[in-house]
What does this fold into?
Amino acid sequence: MIYNILEGYDVVLKRLTEDKIELVRHWRNDPKISKYMEFRDHITPDMQRAWFEKINNNDNYYFIIVYKGNEIGLINIKDIDWQIGQGESGSFIYDDKYLNTDIAYRAHIVLYDYFFNILKGKSLRAHILADNNRSIRFSCFLGYKEVEKNQYILIDKDYFNNLNRSRFIKRWNKLYSK
It folds into this structure.
């Protein structure tokens, strides 16, 4: 089941559409983002269009993160192997005022709930560069475990049993159920 909009915890994830690929290209070409990516070359409009044509399918789920009407970043699960139920996750927050807030965490819960509950995924992997300490800490907070150098895995059981996730949801429900 494919949704173009996912919502929860005051975050909206909008499926990446062709009219937004130049925005994402701008973000990805910014050194503050590209320095954390394996591919760091300048991305041209033609390269971006070719990339979008390659990922615009049911094996790749890319979403613009929207908070309070502002497009602030990108989150994805890509290259899903449906036979084993595994995809690769990635994200970045472009808008600096939302770094070090819980917005990225909220966006991940929304996307991961979709992946594990609706799409019936079994695990996610993440490739994180060794010098990206913030992303390593964040991924471990989400429940990922390092399985080899720069490679992390989150299995469905660990995601659902993650105490950080459980506490966040309980706190959120308590605050907003009034």
Observations:
- The chain has a mean pLDDT of 93.
